[in-house]
Design a protein that fits this description.
This protein has 2 helices and no strands. It is an all-alpha fold and 128 residues long.
């Protein structure tokens, strides 16, 4: 039995089983590797998406901050314009009150109409 053809068949079968085991072992390792890599892919994709999102948000934040600073500057300018216009408005109100006084009426009568008070002496220049 031990030296017969049955032994060679046994050895051949044993070798076939060893090959099958090696193949199975390699297939299991490959399967494990595929699972490991495929398990990392969603993480890598999520990481890339997170990086893109962070860049987009960062650029948007800088844009919004630039616009906010421009609006603050514009607000300061408008507040200054408002203060100037209020001062001008107050000056016009004071001038309107002055226009209602007798002094203003006399001033305009003397300047524009050439009128004088009774008893005033008029001097005229003589040009040759």
């Amino acid at each position: 039995m031990f030296g017969s053809d049955d032994d060679t068949e046994f050895e051949r079968g044993d070798m076939r089983m060893a090959k099958k085991r090696r193949w199975k072992s390699t297939a299991i390792q490959q399967d494990r590797m595929i699972r490991y890599v495929s398990g990392k892919k969603p993480f890598a994709v999520a990481l890339v998406l997170l990086a893109v999102f962070a860049v987009c948000v960062g650029s948007r934040i800088s844009y919004v901050q630039a616009r906010a600073s421009a609006y603050v500057e514009q607000e300061k300018q408008l507040e200054q314009n408002i203060a100037e216009e209020r001062a001008r408005s107050e000056a016009l109100i004071e001038y309107e009150e002055y226009m209602k006084t007798p002094e203003f009426i006399e001033e305009i009568a003397e300047e524009r109409l050439g009128l004088v008070h009774d008893g005033d002496i008029i001097f005229k220049s003589v040009t040759r």
